[in-house]
Amino acid sequence: MIRTAKRLDTIQEYYFSKKLREVRGLMAQGKPIINMGIGSPDLAPSQEVLKAIQAAVLENGAHQYQSYQGLPQLRDAIANFYRNKFGVTADPNTEILPLMGSKEGIMHISLAFLNEGDEVLIPNPGYPTYTSVTNLVGAVPKYYDLTADNGWFPDLEALAKQDLSKVKLMWLSYPHMPTGATATKEQFIKMVAFAQEHDILLVNDNPYSFVLNDEPASILSLPNAKKVCLELNSLSKTFNMAGWRVGFVLGSNEHINAILKVKSNMDSGMFYGIQKGAIAALNSSDDWFKELNEVYGKRRELIYKLVDKLGCSYDRNAVGMFVWAKLPAGSVSSEEFIDDILYKKDLFITPGTIFGSNGEGYIRFSLCITEHKIEEAIKRFE
Q1: Which of 117, 354, 370, 375 could form a disulfide with 15, with the two C-beta atoms 3.0–4.6 Å apart?
Q2: Model pLDDT, residue 7
């Protein structure tokens, strides 16, 4: 019998992979399931983006292997985007690396900087992939609490009192997923100082800055942040290109070179047409963001009505592609709550517990669903 690698004992199948099989099974039985679980944009990319990829596939060399570092024009577009939107200066030749989605970057960064036994600070609640990748590379997850009482920001004083001698890397995600919390400039300053003091590589995962957020921010806008920080970003949410798998990481030349060592041994470059489409997306006018947020804003108001029907509470100041809702006092567990709704109302919502133990008592609604479908969901509770 051929046995699987021991590293697989440290992880489980991704929640959405498993749960959506059940949801598809219910739909196959004729159940009119409305899926509010996943943040996969249902809107299309802009016409400029679609025209760019269509034209690119006809160019000479379009179907050959591409550079591991991406097209120079793509790196230039990323540099211009970060300079114009965040006030961040990054050398497109040495401080920017395109990726096949930021999820790929989580693995590449972990492989580049973590040895077996190194500890990794991971937000609770937070993106589950931080934990699974940490386990896969043989490092040790060390969770830090995020709570509503502290604005979903880490208690750095409490963290500093812990033994951090084995901590090599710390994951951040602001705007935060799943809560929608944002970090102020002062909080970013404290984070960078914390990382410098404890010799920790800080990685901010930043794909939601332009979704219902009036003040986009990058941790790299701080002086000397590149010495201890990397930032991941993605075109998935901002430009409705989740299936294209386009992301990138910014940081110091030294850190980017380390990631490139891994990446160049893991893939053979990104498809030319996708890169050309990404360039067009990054060059989008302000009208693109305005129109996108008008759609999401209307959807969010309807989601608020649905959440009110369920007796849950929420923070109207939260940003991003989700509504993070607190269950009524005395409720059953988050997973029991959403399963009851799934089986009785044919509505799938994400339980907060998949993001960590501090997600207990919360549920998450995606805005990647039409107004018509949200209105239909509301009617199921009347």
Answers
A1: 354
A2: 87
Instruction: Dump strand ranges (E) for the chain.
Output: 34-35, 96-99, 119-124, 140-145, 167-172, 201-205, 229-234, 247-250, 313-314, 322-326, 347-348, 350-351, 362-366
Location of each CATH 3.90.1150.10 domain in the chain: 6-44+286-379
DSSP state of 12: -
> What average pLDDT does range 198-204 have in this prediction?
98
Banded pLDDT at 83 (limits 50, 70, 90): very high
Sequence-distant (≥ 6) Cβ neighbours of residue 281 within 8 angstroms: 45, 46, 48, 49, 235, 238, 239, 241
Strand partners, 366: 322
The CATH number corresponding to 6-44+286-379 among 3.90.1150.10, 3.50.50.60, 3.20.20.70, 3.40.1620.10 equals: 3.90.1150.10
pLDDT of residue 268: 87
The structural architecture, per CATH, of the domain 62-282 is 3-Layer(aba) Sandwich (3.40)
Confidence band for 15, pLDDT divided at 50, 70 and 90:
confident
Residue extent(s) of CATH 3.40.640.10 domains in the chain: 62-282
